């Protein structure tokens, strides 16, 4: 089997996150035997598809797609002198996911089976609250709705608007009370029935982060996520020493080398790789294994597009050290609708394990002709 062409589909859609509206980049790897592998990355398709078509596709076409480890190493080498910490690694991640999808189709097995099989019958999830119900003003109602659907954990970021006001450089007592209000109202309404993760998007300096962490301790959040930027992991060690609350770090770290210092300094208690950013299945499974060696659980970041949603479910199904998987109900109930040939929806607060070969899903053929989609192909 040989790779004959690599196709990208730049889709302009998706929700507005803290870095702006998401645009998905889907990748399809075509072969001489007619099988096609599907991958995805985000959020800057123009940069990512340039890497794919200018740097990766020329050295992949004509190669055996089943030699995944060799191809991954060669892709890294192909971009190493331009730096692989941004669009380059996101591009490699998309290609890698597509290669694993192809391998599953060749073997007629789902990807989680290629990774070593299922470690659980279904996948525990939490909901990241990009939602029609605003957690800033109606957090208790949102918690009740999620509990009614069987979801027992949620993630909110009430300190982000405050960080934008102060540039993350200080927080006053009245601003602290404002940030605490949503989790306080959740605790008052549903008690500890709902686990609440607190997201910070790396907006704060160290003294402010320490103050916020200490103020949150009475509310026992599930974790404190990315309180600081991720460029100085030694600072995370100081933060971890200042609070008994667990830190979740690493959605924006890339490859096992990017995670190395985080494991070495023992700052994080939850490890959060993103399959579309960290290097695809090839790197995520290694990161999960290293985490397990340190007795740390993983909680994969799953806040991109519908292909990532399926891919993350395969990783979560397999990983023996899974803690919980991120999901976004606004995504799977609304924004993903019609993009793929089938949906992957929670049942009683658990995500089912995907079935079918490879990822177990394809792009909806109608998407290829959609006005929001731009297609580019590099062929032999």
Provide a compact summary of the structure.
The chain is of the alpha/beta class and 380 residues long.
Explain what you see.
This protein is of the alpha/beta class and 380 residues long. The chain has two domains: 3-108 and 362-379, Enolase-like, N-terminal domain (Enolase-like, domain 1), CATH 3.30.390; 113-352, TIM Barrel (Alpha-Beta Barrel), CATH 3.20.20. Helix content is 43%, strand content 18%. The chain contains 14 helices and twelve strands. The strands form two sheets. Strands 4, 5, 6, 7, 8, 9, 10 and 11 form an eight-stranded mixed beta sheet that branches. The protein has a four-stranded antiparallel beta sheet with strand order 3-2-1-12. A hairpin with a 4-residue loop joins strand 2 (20-31) and strand 3. Helix 1 packs across helix 2 (68-79), helix 1 crosses helix 3 (87-107) and helix 5 packs parallel to helix 7. The radius of gyration is 20 Å and the shape is globular.
Structural class: alpha/beta
Quick check: average pLDDT? 95
What does the overall shape look like?
A: globular
Query: What name goes with the CATH superfamily of the largest domain?
Result: Enolase-like C-terminal domain
CA-to-CA gap between the ends?
14 Å
Succession of helices and strands: EEEHHHHEHEHHEHEHEHEHHHEHEE
CATH class of the largest domain: Alpha Beta
| Estimated radius of gyration | 20 Å
């Amino acid at each position: 089997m040989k790779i004959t062409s690599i196709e990208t589909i730049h889709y302009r859609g998706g929700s507005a996150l803290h870095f702006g509206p998401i645009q998905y980049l889907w990748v399809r790897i075509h072969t001489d035997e007619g099988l096609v592998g599907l991958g995805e990355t985000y959020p800057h398709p123009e940069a990512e598809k340039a890497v794919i078509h200018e740097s990766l596709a020329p050295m992949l076409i004509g190669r055996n797609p089943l030699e995944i480890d060799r191809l991954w190493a060669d892709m890294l080498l192909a971009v190493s002198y331009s730096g692989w910490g941004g669009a380059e690694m996101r591009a490699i991640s998309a290609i890698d996911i597509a290669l694993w999808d192809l391998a599953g189709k060749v073997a007629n097995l789902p990807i989680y089976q290629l990774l070593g099989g299922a470690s659980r019958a279904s996948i525990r999830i939490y909901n990241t609250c990009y939602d029609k119900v605003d957690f800033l003003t109606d957090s208790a109602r949102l918690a009740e709705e999620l509990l009614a659907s069987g979801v027992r954990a949620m993630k909110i970021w009430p300190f982000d608007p405050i960080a934008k006001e102060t540039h993350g450089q200080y927080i006053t007592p009245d601003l602290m009370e404002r940030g605490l209000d949503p989790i306080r109202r959740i605790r008052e309404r549903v008690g500890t029935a709902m686990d609440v993760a607190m997201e910070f998007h790396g907006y704060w300096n160290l003294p402010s982060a320490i103050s916020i962490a200490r103020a949150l301790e009475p509310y026992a959040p599930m974790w404190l996520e990315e309180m600081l930027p991720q460029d100085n992991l030694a600072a995370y060690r100081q933060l971890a020493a200042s609070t008994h609350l667990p830190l979740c770090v690493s959605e924006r770290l890339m490859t096992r080398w990017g995670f190395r210092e985080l494991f070495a300094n023992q700052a994080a208690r939850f490890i959060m790789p993103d399959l579309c950013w960290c290097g695809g299945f090839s790197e995520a499974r290694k990161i999960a294994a290293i985490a397990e060696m340190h007795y740390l659980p993983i909680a994969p970041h799953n806040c991109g597009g519908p292909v990532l949603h399926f891919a993350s479910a395969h990783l979560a199904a397999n990983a023996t050290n899974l803690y919980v998987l991120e999901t976004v109900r606004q995504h799977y109930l609304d924004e993903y609708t019609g993009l793929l040939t089938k949906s992957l929806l929670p049942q009683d607060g658990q995500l089912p394990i995907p079935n079918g070969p490879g990822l177990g899903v394809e792009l909806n053929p109608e998407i290829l002709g959609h006005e929001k989609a731009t297609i580019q192909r590099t062929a032999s």
